[in-house]
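User: Teach me something about this protein's shape.
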Amino acid sequence: MRPFIYVLMLIGVVLQALFIKTEHEKKYVAADILKGLASLMFVLIGWNACQSVNNPFNRLFLIGLIFGMIGDILLNLRYVFEKQGQKIFLAGILAFLIGHVMYLAALLDQARYAWVWYFIVAGALAAAGLLAYIFKTMEVKKPFKIFGVFYLGAVFIMTAIAIGIAIFLPSKRAFIYCIGAILFTASDVVLIFNTFSGVTKFSMRILNLTLYYIGQVLIAVSMFY
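Assistant: First, the predicted structure itself:
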């Protein structure tokens, strides 16, 4: 990677930290701007990767990163426009879902092997188990349930396939992407419990946002290999 990429990573980490601090201070407009700028850094990393390694997989990954940035901005806009908060939140989840579909399409195109189905089933079962627990123990509105089924299904299946590729088609790219996908999924699990469990903790919010950002950066970095 070019030294410039490490500069983008450093800027992104600083912006993400400032975003977390600003959001905690309830300065939501400034926080959303910082969040968008932090997300722009991993998009720029992905864009530079596409210039270095130009293939169909990277183009799909880049689209996924762009929708991730859109999702980031929308999720925090719900605090700026509170009356439309639920609709904006769902729009943000939809943006992330589209991003994961892009990641999933790229992974499936790289792994056309019979073993992939085992990981698809494993991911679907893991998502179903988590959803069953959430719906049983937490109060979740119907729109969130519907979006949650599709979103978590896509996230867990994508991550399961990434794990399969790292095991059966090992490479530096596969390993870095796999770690990024796992961190992304872990951040979503933390977000769900911190949002719907009835007890919101700032420490959990920090963990959620940190895991998420590192995950997206690793996905972008994997595109160089």
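Now, about its shape. The mean pLDDT is 93. DSSP finds eight helices and no strands in the chain. If you'd like, I can walk through any region in more detail.
User: That's plenty for now, thanks!
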